[in-house]
Write a structure and sequence with these properties.
alpha+beta, BirA Bifunctional Protein, domain 2, Herpes Virus-1, Rossmann fold, 5-stranded mixed β-sheet, 18 helices, 23 strands, binds adenosine-5'-triphosphate
């Protein structure tokens, strides 16, 4: 299946089963805004819990806060967002489509990279077992030529973007003969800067003085509370402050479902360290974060690190964890060494000291910061897209199954009476009343067992518990496993233990 078709299928599956709806759909929706339905909200909450527990509960030097979306407008002057939170945009005159100029160039680079990969594949086929990939990459003329091309383009891109040389960015697009993916035309407008922050007015006064912004990142709510938390929590450097919350960006190109939205949710953690130790902690957090992802078993091959070539104005090192989404490898999480930029800027703009007295070295300093920042919605898409599978069954039928990691699944078990009579529904309700305190369960009595199993597979429920006539005699039920489709007969008294051993988050956190 084509990857793009795969995305379409996932979008329609997500809608059909109550995971994600287009926002205000009865009014034809609002672009790049989505609502999470009854199952989407559960999955989202479970992802949040996994993140929060592993960051906050598992680290005694990390605490979590919940700061306001609205902040004093000077915050965004200090952070650099008023002046520098811009994307370079370019329009195609024929298709009238708007693009981010840097994304057009990056997509072009990705195509060259794919050519290299193809060349390597050919080499592997030709030389078989004797193939030495490292040597091949270092010596094959086609690979080398394309690798040089990539470096040249990246260098030019970095230079022009850093200098905000918009004409230079335009020239690069023209020189590379980049065409509009939609129309194939190379008829471009000039490149312009576009600020991504949404603004609104505070109270009833309008005008510049009342202008405030919807936060474009949750991080600044952490920085302005740095001393509040450090003092009241008696935190010692190194320590971290975590937060989950909404962020807003007026994205130029907002397509690709929940991957790029104008209102989205971030899970961010700022880790405050001694100056000079930041790169050690940067490596540490890269490691911790990739392991957090890999624990979910969504497929090792789906992840790669991508080091930034254009560093943000505040960073001295930055890397993305990219995930192989249906649209290809794209950023899922960023790990940034933000230096002491933010705290220093807030010191300057507020006139308040934001320093830490380090008793071990008897010194006052502004700590350096390592940030881990993951988009909750992108994480949701990563889970959904890698879990969505169509399987051929033995009897020539097909099933769609969401093999969502057990701990994240919206429902952990579906409790089903085989028929609606002979006291079976009442017995099923009794079981549900015991399990519901610890597991989100669904009671399901409509349709044939086969249809009910398919429905639970399609929403990713790990276990189906069937109450039948034998249950009434010996207090046993069948329990069906979503992934293997195997059924076991077990005692009702054992259900809690069996389910807990598979769905508990503990194994992910250990
Ligand atoms: P991109 O390059 O894709 O625009 P970014 O580098 O601007 O992303 P950051 O500022 O590093 O993103 O934000 C941290 C995280 O927030 C990203 O890794 C991503 O998961 C998430 N994120 C950023 N923008 C959006 C968006 N418009 N919709 C959904 N998630 C987003």
């Amino acid at each position: 299946m084509q990857k793009e078709d795969n995305l379409k299928e996932i979008i329609s599956h997500a809608k059909e089963y109550g995971f994600v709806f287009p926002s205000s759909e009865i009014y034809d929706g609002l672009s790049a805004t989505y609502d999470y339905g009854q199952l989407g909200a559960e999955l989202k909450n479970n992802i949040k819990t996994y993140w929060w527990k592993s960051m906050v509960q598992m680290h005694d030097n990390i605490v979590g806060i919940d700061s306001a979306i609205f902040m004093h407008p000077t915050t965004w002057k200090a952070s650099g967002h008023v002046d520098a939170f811009n994307d370079p945009l370019i329009d195609n005159k024929d298709s009238k489509k708007r693009y981010r100029a840097d994304v057009l160039i990056e997509d072009h680079i990705e195509k060259i990279r794919q050519k290299i990969d193809k060349e390597v594949e050919k080499g592997l086929k030709r030389f078989g077992e004797a193939f030495n990939e490292e040597e091949f990459r270092a010596t094959n003329p086609n690979v080398l030529r394309n690798a040089t091309k990539i470096t040249e383009i990246e260098d030019r891109m970095r230079e022009t973007l850093e200098k905000e040389d918009l004409e230079g960015v335009y020239n690069l697009i023209v020189d590379l003969e980049i065409a509009c993916p939609l129309s194939g035309s190379k008829n471009w407008t000039e490149v312009r800067q576009f600020n991504l922050m949404f603004s609104t007015e505070l109270g009833s006064v309008s005008g510049e003085s009342a202008k405030i912004y919807l936060r474009p990142e949750t991080a600044q709510g952490i920085f302005v509370n740095f001393l509040n938390v450090q003092k009241t929590g008696r935190m010692k450097v190194p320590f971290g402050i975590a937060q989950i919350g909404k962020a807003f960006r007026n994205e130029i190109v907002a397509r690709q479902f929940i991957f790029r939205m104008r209102e989205f949710e971030q899970m961010e953690m700022q880790f405050f360290v001694r100056p000079g130790e930041e790169l050690k902690w940067y490596e540490y957090w890269k490691d911790v974060r990739i392991n957090w992802h890999k624990k979910l078993n969504l497929g090792e091959q789906n992840y790669r690190f991508h080091d930034h070539i254009k560093l943000a104005h505040y960073a001295n090192a930055a890397s993305d964890i990219e995930f192989d989404f249906p649209m290809g490898f794209k950023e899922l999480e960023g790990i940034h060494s933000r230096t002491d930029f933010d705290l220093k800027q807030h010191e300057e703009f507020s006139g308040k000291k934001l320093q830490y007295f380090d008793p071990e070295i008897n010194e006052n300093y502004v700590p350096f910061v390592i940030e881990t920042s993951i988009g909750l919605d992108r994480m949701f898409l990563a889970v959904l897209s890698s879990s969505y599978k169509t399987e051929q069954l033995e009897n020539d039928s097909e099933r769609v199954v969401l093999s969502i990691p057990h701990a994240l699944a919206p429902y952990k078990a579906a409790i089903m009476p085989l028929t609606k009579k002979d006291g079976l529904p009442e017995k099923a309700r009794e079981i549900m009343d015991v399990l519901k305190y610890d597991f989100n369960c669904q009671y399901d009595e409509k349709d044939s067992p086969g249809k009910r199993y398919r429905r639970q597979d399609a929403i990713g429920t790990p276990f189906c518990i069937m109450v039948d006539h034998q249950t009434m005699e010996d207090d046993t039920v069948t329990i069906r496993d979503r992934d293997t489709m195997e059924q076991d007969r077990v005692a009702i008294a054992d259900l809690h233990r069996i389910i807990d051993s598979k769905v508990s988050m503990t194994s992910l956190l250990k």
